[in-house]
Amino acid sequence: MIFLEELGSFIGRFHPILVHLPIGMLVLAFMMALGEKLNKNANYNQAIRFSLLLGSIAAVFAGITGYLLSRNGGYETDVLDFHQWLGIAVAVFSLFTYWLYKTDGKSTRFNKIRSQKFVLLLVIVLLIGFTGHYGGTLTHGKGYIKDAVPTNIKAVLGIKAEEEEIAVLENVQEAQVYQEVIHPILKARCQSCHGEKKKEGGFALHSQESLLKGGDSGSLLSKGSKEKSELYARLILPEGHEDRMPPKGRTPITENQIKLIAWWIDSGLDFEKKVKEISQTEEIAGILKKLESAEDEGDVEMLYANLPEAPSLPENKINAWQAKGIKIMPISDNNNYVVINAINYPELSDKDIDELMEIKDNIVQLKLGHTNITDNSLVKIASLPNLIRLHLEYSQITDKGLESLGVAKQLNYVNLVGTKITESGLSHLEGIKSLQHIYAFQTGGKFDSQKSNSKIDTGNYMLPFLESDTVKY
Amino acid sequence: MKDLDKLVKEAYQTQLQAETRRHFLKKCVAGIGSIALGSMMANCIGPSSSANGEGVDLNSLNPLAPRSPHFAGKAKNVIYLHMAGAPSQLELFDYKPALHKLHNQPCPESLLAGKTFAFIRGVPKMLGPQATFNQYGQSGAWVSDHLPHFTKVVDEVSFLKAVHTDQFNHGPAQLFMQTGSARLGRPSIGSWVTYGLGSENSNLPGFVVLTSGGKTPDAGKSVWGSGFLPSVYQGVQCRSKGDPVLYIADPEGMDRDLKRNAIDAINTVNKEEFETFKDPETLSRIAQYEMAYKMQVAVPEVMDINNEPEYIHELYGTEPGKESFANNCLLARKLVEKGVRYVQLFDWGWDSHGTNPSDSIDLGFRNKCREIDRPMTALIMDLKQRGLLDETLVVWGGEFGRTPMQENRDNNDMPFLGRDHHTDAYTIWMAGGGIRNGISYGETDEIGFTGVSGRSSVHDVHATMLHLLGFDHEKFTYEFQGRPFRLTDVEGIVIKDII
Fold first, then answer.
1. B324: pLDDT confidence band, cut at 50, 70 and 90?
2. Alpha carbons A265 and A233: distance in angstroms, whole number
3. Domain ranges for chain B
4. CA-based nearest residue in chain A for residue B361
5. Across the interface, do B390 and A437 touch by the CB < 8 Å criterion?
6. For position A269, what pLDDT does the model report?
7. How far apart (Å, rounded) are the C-alpha atoms in residues A446 and A423?
C-alpha cells in the first residue's frame, strides 16, 4: 500500500508538466476557429477536431495527476477547490466540444449550441485562464503577480505595499497596546486569510469592529478570559491539529506572540491604553522588551545560510580521496558543501592539501587534528573562500602559519589545542571579523587572560577540592 | 588459497542444502518466464552489468560509512548520561519551598485520585526538599548543595523542568527513554543516530556503551539494542576495568596475520552469501568482523586513561583501573574526541526508596551525587576547553522522577527517607551541540507534582535531539513489517525554546 501511495505521489508530481499540454492544444483549437472566422476561405475543421481530441485527453490526464498531487496536501483548500472544479470543467467542456465537432452533420442533438461552437471554444479558453491562475496561486502563493508590479505602477493603481514583518518599537512601554503591539502581530500572522478581502470562516480582524464581531460561529474574544476566547484556543492547539491557527504551511506564530495576545485578552481587550498602563508580569515585560530589538527570538542561527550555491563535486576524485581514508561528507542531503575529516588518515600532509584545493569552493569544515600538515598548508587553507570551521589540534603548525591564516574570510572557529602557537601568533587572527571561537588549550605560549581577546578559550579549567568531596553519608 | 576455495565450496554446498522443493518450483516458473521475456526484449537491454561475476565492494556496502543528515545539524556527537533508577529532581534542580511547609503533612486525597504509584499505598505524607537550594550563574539556575561543582557550569546548560513519561517501572521506563517505546523491539536512540549518520572513525564502533554503579540497567541490554535496525547499529558495551571489550585480545598462538587471513576467508564466504540472499544481517556480519579486527588495536588505545595528564585525573576525579562514573566520563570525552558518534553512559543506583541507607534520599542519594558531581562538571569543562562542546550534545537524566510524597511502602512507615517513582514531572538537562545557554524551560506546580507549563514528553526530547543532529524526526524512518517506523512514533515536537 505504501508503494501505491508513493507511486501516486510520484505520478502526481508530473501535473505541473502535463497541464501545459491541454493549454497549448485547446488554445490552438480556439486560434484555428478564430482564423476560420477571420478568413472565410479557410477550413480548419479537421485540424480543430484533432486538437480538441488531443487537448481533451490531455486535460483528463492533467486532472488525474492533479488529483494525485493534491492528495499530498499542503495546499490551501478553497483555492484548490476552485482550481480543481475549473480544471474538471475544462476537461468536460473540451470533450463535449470535440463531440460536437465529430458529430457535425451526423447528429441533430444540441443543434442550438452546435452553431455556437466558437463561443464554446472561447469559454474553454477563459476557463483555462482561470484554472491556470488558481493553479499558479497554489504553487506561488497569493499576490505572486501583484507583488512584482513595478512600484511606480503600483502607486498609480493604488496598490499598497504590504508590511510583512512586525516593526521595531523604540520604547515599548510608551506604545499603544493595540495599535502598536497586538494589531501588528494579528496583521502579520492572520490577516492574509482573515482580512478585508478574504474572510475565512466569516472572520476578519483588520479593524477593531470586525475583530470584536467575530466569525460565523459568533464572537471569538471574551473580555478578560483567554480560556473562553476561541481566538486564543485556536492558537494553542497542538501542532498538526486540523483547527490550529495559523494552518500548516503558513508562517507559524511564536510562543511569545501567543503570550502577548493572551495577556491582552486577559487584561480586558483594551484598544486605547498605552502598554505601561496595563499591569504586566515579569515574563510579559521581558517579552515586550524584546520588541525593541530587531533580532528574531528563537531563530536558529544558520551558519551556512549565507553561502552561495556550491559547485558540484568531482565524483571520481572524491572516491579516490575516500579510499585513502580522507572522509568527505556533504553537510546535508543534496548539498555540495563538505566537511573534510582526516581522522583515519593521520598521514595527511601538505601534498594532500594541494590536491584538495581542487574542491576549494566546496569546503566549509576542515578537521585536520593529529595530522602531519605544516605551516605551508595554511597559506592555501586561508584562501578557501567558504571555510567556516578549522581543526588543527595537535598538528605541527606554529605562529608562522597563523600569520598566513590571518587573511581567511569566513572563518568562525579555529581549534589550536595542543599546538606550539603563542599569544603573538594569535594576534594575527585579530583581523578575521567572522572569527568567534579560538581554542588554545595546552598551547606553547603564556596567555594573559586580561589582555587576550575574550573569544580565546585557553581552558585549563580546574575544580577546587571541596571538603564535602570526601564526606561519606 | 586452497583452503579458501575449500571454504567457498563448502558454503555453496550448505546453501544447496537449504534449498527446498518450493525454491525449485519457484525458480522453474520464474526461470521460464524470464527466458521468454529475455527473448522478447533482447534488443531493449544494454550489455548486462550484473553478470560480470565481480565480488561485492566492501566499502560501498559498509553500513557504518559516514552519511549526511537531512540538514546541517549543529551536533555531531552525543554523550547521554543516564542515571538508572531515576534521581530525585526535588533534591537537585526543582526547588519547591512550598513543599518545605507541607513536610510531614498527609497528602491531599485530590492529588492521589486516579493515580497509580509503584509502591505508595493509602495516604502518604509529604516530604520537604532534603537539600538547600541557591541560584547560580548568570542564568540564576536553581541547584542544590548536593552538586557544588556543577554550579560552575550551569550557564552552559539548559534545563527541562517538566518532562513527563507514562511508565512508572524502571525497565519499561528506561526502554521508553532510550528507544521511544516501553515495549521491547525498538532501536535505541544511539542506534538510530549511527544508522542515520554512520561512524566518523572507521576503526571504532559508532555507538559505545559504558556502565557504572555495579549493575547494568534494569531493562537489560535492549536499552542499547538495535531493535529492527541491522544489528551493526547496536551499542558496543566497553568495560572500564580489565579488557575493554571481552575476548578482544588474540588468543595465545594466534598472530595478527593469521587472524587477517581467517577474516578474509570468512568475509569472502559471507559476501557470496550476501550476493545470493541479500540479507542485510550478512553485511552486518562482514562489517563486524572488520570492525573487530581494527578495534583490537584502536580500542585498547582509546580506552586507556593511564596516559592522561595528572591534572585531567584531578579534574575528573578518576582512578585508573576502577569501574566508576568518573572514569566513564573521561572515556566518553576521549571517545568523542576520536570521532565516536554516540556514547551512552548508565550509572546505576539512583532508586531512592528509603528501604535501606544506600537507597535513601538523605544518605545514599547524597553519596551518589558526590560520585557524579565532579565528573559530569569536568566533562562539560573538558569538552569546552578542547573546542568539542559546540558539536557534542550532552544529555543528563533518569527514566522518570520522584514523588513529592514520602514513600510508604505498602502503607507502612519506612526506616529511611525515600521517594517513590513519579511519572508526571522530572528534570532533564542538556548542554552543548546547539543547546542554548542557561535556559530553564517548563515549570512544575508549587510542590513539584506535575508540570504546569512547558511540559515536554519523552518523544519531544527525542525530537529535539534528532533536530540538533540534523534530522527531521518525522522523516527519519526505517521500513519494517510493511510500514515506516520512527524513533518518535507518531508524536514529538522539537523543543524550540532550548535550541
1. very high
2. 12
3. 77-498
4. A473
5. yes
6. 86
7. 7
Nearest to B201 by CA among B73, B85, B62, B305: B62
pLDDT digits (tens, 9 = 90+) for A266-277: 888 888 888 888
Determine the distance in angstroms separating the CA of A257 from the nearest CA of chain B, rounded to an integer: 14
A332–B68 C-beta distance less than 8 A: yes
For the domain made up of A315-457, give the CATH fold: 3.80.10
The closest CB to that of B470, out of A332, A393, A459, belongs to A332
Whole-angstrom Cα distance, residue B89 to residue A226? Answer: 32
B77-498: in CATH 3.40.720: yes
A-facing residues of B in 345-364 (CB < 8 A) are: 357, 362-364
- Neighboring chain B residues of A1 at a CB cutoff of 8 Å: 482
Measured CA to CA, the distance from residue B396 to residue B394 in angstroms comes to: 7
Supply A29's cell numbers.
483549437
Question: What distance in Å separates the CA atoms of residue A62 and residue A91, rounded to the nearest whole number?
Answer: 9
Contacts of A334 (CB under 8 A, 6+ apart): none
Q: By three-state DSSP, how is residue B478 classified?
A: strand
Q: Is B314 on the interface with A (CB under 8 A)?
A: yes
A306 touches chain B (CB under 8 A): no
Backbone angles phi, psi at A339, to 5 degrees: -100, 130
- Check: CB of residue B190 under 8 Å from CB of residue B180: no
Chain B hits for A238, CB-CB cut-off 8 Å, are 493
pTM, to two decimals: 0.69
Contact at CB, A343 and B339, closer than 8 angstroms: yes
Which one, of B215, B236, B214, lies nearest residue B225 by Cα?
A: B236
pLDDT in tens, B477-493: 999 988 999 999 999 99
Q: Which three cell numbers stand for residue B367?
A: 553519596
Strands (E), B138-205: 141-144, 157-164
